[in-house]
Amino acid sequence: PTTRSTRAKSTTPLALALALTFVFACWVSVSPRGAPVGRVEARIAQRFPSTRVSSASLSFRSPAPAYPTSSLFKQHRFPKILQSHSALGGGSFGKPPVLKYFDAKGAAEIVRYLFAVADENYDDYRYPMQMEGMFGQPGFKVTKEEFDKDKADGKMPFQKVPIMEVEGVTLAQSKAIERFVAKKLGLFGKTDLESAQIDMICEQIRDIKDSWLRARGHKMKPDMEDKDVVNSVENFFKDQLPAQMDMLQKQMDTSGYFVGDTITLADISFYHFVKSTFFPPFGEKIPDILAKYPKLVALNQNVQDNPSIKTWEEKRPQTAF
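^ that's the sequence the OP posted. Answer follows.
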């Protein structure tokens, strides 16, 4: 006859297996996008590379429509992409954060690039704007009623954007948001020392931007009829910018990136700086200056060729600036 002790021992493995199956099923069904369910996607993708599986299907959610264009107000939620950085363990958000800025690239675009590279869900909340006149010219006017209302209602910590709402907290200051998002998504280095190096490059890029701001007389469009401004601008492109490029190139890693062997916040910041800082006609000077620094050219190309960067640049809303 079988004793109670023997029966208990014989049923323990079966009970344990059933319990683990139940726990795993619950974990899959309740995991939010960007949470551990992403690892399931990655495993399926590695085993069956031709099969497309989204976190939406695994968690029984339907992805929200992407890139509506029917109104001035644009709100986008980006669908999860297979084998994303976050799905492979780079850190993620439980609930998609809300990034708020104008319908423009500006001070929010680096954050958008970070989300794109990591294929991470977020809401891209864009305040509508109506512009009258020529940008940078007298009489240019921007109307932004919804932004003005939120500002008056105290919804912005420092009365400006970008801001990002995450886990019930509203973050402000673009650089703080960039570092926070980069850390969460695994784009801020693998060690504390690498993080410091990335931060160092980003701060140096900001110094260069400040130098350009001073050179143009702290105006969006420099007064090229002012001889002092003309001399300052010429000096910036002839001496200051080349010297800064030389120093940045000396900080390059042999991998083709600033720090480590993969794309980070530092690389994206430099790419965005080169691409978007200089309005015409000054932007036409940049390719010739950059060409003298082959490592920086290669870095820029590495970022530009990143599939997620390409996809974002093709699908993002087309804006004036």
